[in-house]
């Protein structure tokens, strides 16, 4: 890889932005296409495919054989609440390739013996996420049932355009949540993106079953063609 391209790629990765390395297989010439520049590029459609799947794509264009190799930031699942669902969700999500972190200011729940294999923050979400901001390659699952803990990261996730935002709670609870978030200045377009009640509707009841439903919904959101099409 040419040093200048490598430098560009490192800059994109440090900023947690996606990019695709496009290489002409006949000449070896390459260019780095940033996700932000994809929409107006002649290879927009295959670039979108590569970014959505995270897998390389071979393309024939005007007699040239091109190899598109995507570089995506590590996908994060930020779980708000060190609860029983989180205990089941964390190892499953890690097995699926996600970077998982648990945030909960309630130190009676956020203990290393309950979450020994993931990053655990026994602190308020505001403090943690201001140091490690959310972005479009993050999923946020709010699971505490406590608006004092859940509301701020939900708002932050929507403003950061996280690819998934889910929240635990009944429809009545969610209705009250929407009122609070509207008062905080979020629009209906923002609020429509919240998955609530959280998880795919598989009639899950136990914490482990709910964790399966949540992880499946997160994966479905990430693989959605609409997500790739909405990227800019």
TrEMBL record:
<dbReference type="InterPro" id="IPR052698">
    <property type="entry name" value="MoCofactor_Util/Proc"/>
</dbReference>
<dbReference type="Pfam" id="PF13478">
    <property type="entry name" value="XdhC_C"/>
</dbReference>
<protein>
    <submittedName>
        <fullName>XdhC family protein</fullName>
    </submittedName>
</protein>
<feature type="domain" description="XdhC Rossmann">
    <location>
        <begin position="77"/>
        <end position="218"/>
    </location>
</feature>
<dbReference type="InterPro" id="IPR027051">
    <property type="entry name" value="XdhC_Rossmann_dom"/>
</dbReference>
